[in-house]
Amino acid sequence: MDKVSSSDCIGVAGIVLAILLVVLDKAGKLKGGWLYGLLFVAGLMTLFIAVGNDWVMDAPTKWKVWRGLLMFCVVGLTYSGIAIWITPSEEKKTEQHTESEARPGVGASPTTSQTVTSRPQSGLASKEESVRTPTVPPVVHLMFKDAALLTPERKKRITNDINGVARYLRSFGPLGLPIPDDLPPIGVDTKNSKGEGWSFNSQGDNKYYYNQFTLQQGALDKQTKITEAFLSFVVGRFTYEPPPPMPPNLEQMTPQQFLESGHTPAAMDRSYRWMTSVVIVQYLNHSYWNRPLAENEKPVCPDRGNGMSYYFWQMRERFGKDFADKLAVLTLRASVDKPYTGAHADAVHPYRYYLYERLTLADSVIDNENSRMPEIDSILKECSWLPLT
Fold first, then answer.
1. Is the distance from CB of 307 to CB of 352 less than 8 angstroms?
2. How far is it between the farthest Cα atoms of the chain?
3. Which letter does DSSP use for residue 344 in this model?
4. Domain residue ranges of the chain, discontinuous segments joined by +
5. Which of 104, 201, 217, 293 has the fewest beta carbons closer than 10 A?
6. In terms of C-beta density within 10 A (0-12 exposed, 13-18 middle, 19 or more buried), how is residue 179 classed?
């Protein structure tokens, strides 16, 4: 009886591994780089039995090399064929691309440049059975200025990102934020090559297309900056309140009178709306991309500033994305629906009273009997945002 060599064992193990990998692929249990990497290892293992068998090793010297190369080619072609077989078809790739490009949050819709391949509810569908639905129409129609930095690829990506976050905002229903349909043409700040911000300039006496929506160069290839810029535009438009007219006797005012004129309830309401909008934009952008706040975005305890974006994220982890996102949007809406009247003006942190009152009001819309407010209070106490002082 012939003795089984170690090379035979390795080769047989390689063949078994290859069969197992094909089974796992067809069952949907293993995909991507790991699959192809392990298949490559299986091919190398198979070479032990392909090149190390008696037909090759016992051949005359002048034929040994040729037989070895022949078996090497056979193994290479076999495993190449397996790799091609398990590679997703173009149709499957389109379907996977559509799913991966949808917004990172819940209830995503495909972006404007994608098509959706319908899935059969049971069984396997042939190519003829796959039905493509029409391209989803964009929520926002964008215009771009003629700039060398705004390449076709960048325009497409910016369009997809802005429409993705616009659908996210629409998912909140009638109590969400209205999406403006008069977005100014998008331009680029060519003077600052490293900046990652944006700027808006609105002239009330002109048509919207004369206004400015400018991205700095560092933001062009950062999707989170694009969505944050659009969120800032939407929220800013929603919370905007025209400034009151200047006092007619401005020149006769004392410095104290001038200071007091800027601290009227109406003036403070505009400031508090803006402060709330900064919090909500930061949270919504992180929630949309499913990205927790970085360490430098968290409050330093005790919270001497405003760590509300982080606290909203803590509520998201405690109660879920759907609840926290709605609470954030409704808190912003409450800041518009309930103007500041001057309450708690003498407090150490009057803005916290303002925000907490609107947070509680927002919670009452989605939370039966404000049942979650005690837990929300516990989150706000973790870094001494509460108690109010």
1. no
2. 115
3. T
4. 6-86, 96-133, 152-239, 250-381
5. 201
6. buried
> Could you tell me which residues are beta bridge partners of residue 189?
216
State the residue for tokens 């104290």: 256
Residue range 5-52, pLDDT digits in tens = 777 788 788 788 888 877 777 777 777 777 778 888 888 888 888 877
Name the residue among 37, 140, 35, 137 with its Cα closest to residue 88.
35
pLDDT band at 218; cut points 50, 70, 90: very high
Q: Under a CB-based contact definition with an 8 Å cutoff, are residues 106 and 321 in contact?
A: yes
Q: What is the pLDDT of residues 168-197, one digit of tens each?
A: 999 999 988 999 888 999 999 999 888 999
What per-residue confidence (pLDDT) applies to 99? 42
pTM for the whole thing?
0.65
> Tokens at residue 237, please?
């438009």
pLDDT (0 to 100) of residue 255: 76
Beta strands 212-216 and 198-201: pairing type? antiparallel
How is residue 283 annotated by DSSP?
H
Closest CA to 267 of 249, 248, 241: 241
Residues 167, 109: contact at Cβ < 8 Å? Answer: yes
What is the DSSP pairing of strand 116-117 with strand 212-216?
Answer: unpaired
Task: From 340, 367, 371, select the one nearest 271 (Cα to Cα).
Answer: 340
**Given this model, what pLDDT does residue 115 score?**
36
pLDDT of residue 95: 42
- What amino acid is encoded at 12 in this protein? V
Report d(CA 350, CA 352) in Å as an integer.
Answer: 5
Nearest to 18 by CA among 68, 78, 88: 78
With a cut of 70, say whether residue 337 has pLDDT above it.
Answer: yes
Looking at residue 79, its amino acid is Y
Spatial contact of 285 and 338, defined as CB atoms under 8 Å apart: no
Query: Is pLDDT at 278 greater than 80 in this prediction?
Result: yes
Q: What is the three-class DSSP state of 374?
A: helix
Contact 328, 318 (CB under 8 A): no
* Residues 107 and 326: beta-carbon distance below 8 Å: no
Residue 235 burial (CB count, 10 A): 22
